[in-house]
Amino acid sequence: MLEAAAKAGADAVKIQVYTPDTITLKSDKPDFVIAEDNAWAQHKTLYELYQHAHTPWEWLDDIFQYAAQLGIEVFGSVFDTTSIDELEKYPVKVYKIAAPEIVDVEILERVAKTGKPVILSTGLANLTDISRAIATLERYGCHDIGLLKCTTAYPTPANEVNLRTMQNMAQTFSVPVGLSDHTTGLGVPIAAATLNASMLEKHIKLDDDTDSVDSFFSLTVSEFSMLVDEVKKAQLALGIVTYDLSPSAAKNANGRRSLYISRDIKAGEIITEQHIRSVRPCFGLPVSDKPKVIGRRAKVDLELGDRLSWEVLE
User: Fold this and answer.
1) DSSP assignment of 188-215, as one string?
2) Phi then psi dihedrals of residue 224, to 5 deg
């Protein structure tokens, strides 16, 4: 997956660093049982889900070594202080706080003290939660903070994404803001790119045959590669404010309409509506000159298809 992500154009890969024991309790009491209408109900309890889904910590050595060979950055979401301590053994340049952990002051304090940038996911946070989390990080020395607009729903309905909130976050908190996207398809993250998202997070899978806890809302590697290309196009397409013709459009400027002779006319005849038409291309008189032309006399014989110019008029 590291290799596939790198080839697909990802700038970084984020992994989740927890064990079932660091994120929940091994209990089958009602509070820990997954609801039947939940996408992960087959795993019965939270502990069983996280046991199935977690990245084994003994994989981390290989992950970071291979990522270095590929030239792609790896960082992690952390879920308790032990996961921060574990990742501090590796060349991690940034930390992410997942949506449910944004209210955990102990995690925020510890991650701030690493002195590294922190990305906060806001999928389960209100305005007060976000303000408090940023204040906590700053209190303990972290001033390089980014936010991810997120909707913690799997998959997320497009009408619940509310991308405009991303722009308001940037204005409200004066920090870089991006999107952690759980919708299906490419449309939403591309739209986020046009709203100046500073980062985009998307789940990936190797192919459609992949069966994992997030495969039902993940992009295949080929789809992710397409997303990278389309996001770059979207960013280029934003361009600047201009009413000038672009170099490419200027090559087709002769497609504009102008005035041409549409019926043969003899020298000395008065030109009427029936003698001229506004057509493509643009080499005749401007269409706006039509009222000035009607009623003038032809200076020479004119045929259908001749350009209309002041030189051929009396």
Assistant:
1) HHHHHHHTT-S-EEE-EESSTT--STTG
2) -65, -40
Question: How far is CA 273 from its chain centroid?
Answer: 53
- pTM here is 0.87
Return the sign of the alpha-carbon dihedral for residues 55, 47, 20, 77. Answer: positive
Q: Which helix (H) or strand (E) holds 291?
A: helix 290-293
Render pLDDT for 38-91 as a digit per residue (tens, 0 to 9).
999 999 999 999 999 999 999 999 999 999 999 999 999 999 999 999 999 999
- Tokens 């291979």 correspond to what residue? 66
Q: Which residues contact 122 (CB under 8 A, 6 or more apart)?
A: 99, 102, 129, 130, 147, 148, 149, 150, 169
Q: How many CB atoms lie within 10 A of CB 73?
A: 18
CA pair distance 149, 153, nearest whole angstrom: 13
CB-neighbour burial class of residue 55 (10 A; exposed 0-12, middle 13-18, buried 19+): middle
166-212 confidence digits (pLDDT tens): 999 999 999 999 999 999 999 999 999 999 999 999 999 999 998 99
The torsion of the CA quartet 42, 48, 52, 55, rounded to 10 degrees, works out to 140
Establish whether the linkage from the previous residue to 56 is cis, with ω within 30° of 0: no
